[in-house]
Amino acid sequence: MLFAGGGYRLWAEEAIRRVSTRVNIDGEVFGPSDARISVFDRGFLYGDSVYEVLRTYGGVPFAKQAHLARLQRSADRLGIPVPGISWIQAQMDRTLAEASNPESYIRIVITRGSGPLTLDPTRARSPVCVILVKPYEPFPEWMYETGIRVAIPAVRRNLRAALDPAIKSGNYLNSILALGEARRAGFDDALLLDVRGRIAEASSSNVFVLIGSRLCTPALETGLLEGVTRGLTLRIARDAGMECCECNLDTADLINADEVMITSTLREIMPVVQIDDQPIGHGKPGPVYHKLRSLFREHALAATRAEARLGGKGDES
Ligand code: PDD
Predict the structure, then answer these.
(1) Which of 35, 100, 215, 285 has a 20 to 30 A CA-CA distance from 1?
(2) Of 250, 286, 251, 254, which is closest to residue 270 (Cα–Cα)?
(3) What is the average pLDDT value for the chain, to the nearest integer?
(4) Up-side HSE of residue 163: CA atoms within 13 Å toward CB?
(5) CA 200/CA 187 separation, integer angstroms
(6) How far apart are CA 70 and CA 66, in angstroms?
(7) Per-residue confidence at 2, pLDDT binned at 50, 70, 90?
């Protein structure tokens, strides 16, 4: 037996003690109940902010460069000044170290900051950077084993010309409306169409459709978030010799698909087995899903191990 006597209990208590949430606000680290920002903050008042979500593998943030680059792109689109990327990186590392969880969820939020109560963005004072680190909680295993059921809600994806979904802003009302509709109808997630009826993405993931031997995902011009996991899934599938395409897909493509899956940082690759009342393929996770998920995991683990060897100086994605 590995843990004789009270050894296991002590080890478990120590593990629980070490699991923690830490919040870095503009370079100062707080416990969760001491972390506060102003009610005049425009992120709170108007969703006038951008954010990123990362997770760790083996304690090392995965695809850091890709997430930080998207954070910068989102902020540039909204004209929110970003503190230096290397400063954010250093603060993230420090907050992770203080939280010292075996695996962490990391959320980086940059708001335009506080100012007088007016929409006018030029009146904001200085941006606020929040880095929230908490223990990573995996999705329930049944979702990967039996697959999830998604609904296509009445609400459509934002138009690119209105609020471009490529901007990862703090305004997620479009996704919240869609997810609420799907959850109230008893589904696990929502798959949004654009105003022309093309498949765009799920409420917080991208979507992949296997048609015969072709792995298809909606083209960026449909209006969707360019997911880091989406990009890596395309790369991994192409490297494995699969034919991939970024194209226009409609609901008939979905219903007739052999497999459907969604991708995101937190979900990795997750199978979808039903859309509204229609089963997909044989109604259970298919072989391409199983293959891509295991290739993705291998890639994430190898990349973060290499990153750890380089002391955080590599581009692991
Ligand atoms: N969501 N589409 C939307 C609308 C998203 O919010 C996300 C990510 C994705 C997938 O992006 P990525 O592969 O880079 O995680 C697609 C994150 C996980 C979140 O907001 O929690």
Answers:
(1) 100
(2) 286
(3) 94
(4) 14
(5) 18
(6) 6
(7) very low
**CA–CA distance, 22 with 93 (Å, rounded to integer):** 12
**CA 187–ligand 1 middle distance (angstroms):** 19
| Ligand 1 atom nearest 232 alpha carbon | 13
Closest to 87 in 3D by CA, of 71, 63, 104, 103: 71
Show which of 115, 135, 155 is a domain's final residue.
Answer: 135
Establish if 7 belongs to a structural domain.
no
Atom nearest to 267 CA in ligand 1: 18
Range of 71's domain? 17-135
Q: How many other CB atoms are there within 10 angstroms of residue 122's CB atom? A: 7
160-177 per-residue burial string, b: 16 or more CB within 10 A, e: under 16: beebebbbbbbbeebbeb
For the stretch 45-75, what's the b/e string if a residue is b when 16 or more beta carbons lie within 10 angstroms of its beta carbon? beebbbbbbbbbbeebbbbbbbbbebbbebb
Q: How far apart are CA 104 and CA 135, in angstroms?
A: 4
Whether 266 is in the pocket of ligand 1, judged by its Cβ within 6 Å, is yes
List C-alpha distances in Å: 267 to 78, 141, 203, 205, 297: 27, 11, 12, 8, 11
Question: Length of the chain in residues, anyone?
Answer: 317
* DSSP-based three-state secondary structure for 39: coil
pLDDT of 15 higher than 50? yes
CA 108 from chain centre, in angstroms, equals: 12
Q: How far is the CA of 264 from the centre of ligand 1 (A)?
A: 5
pLDDT digits (tens, 9 = 90+) for 252-309: 999 999 999 999 999 999 999 999 999 999 999 999 999 999 999 999 999 999 999 9
Strand partners, 30: 23
Q: How far is the CA of 169 from the centre of ligand 1 (A)?
A: 11
Q: Domain check: are 107 and 148 in the same one?
A: no
Q: How many domains are there within the chain?
A: 2
**Residue position matching structure tokens 């083996």:** 58
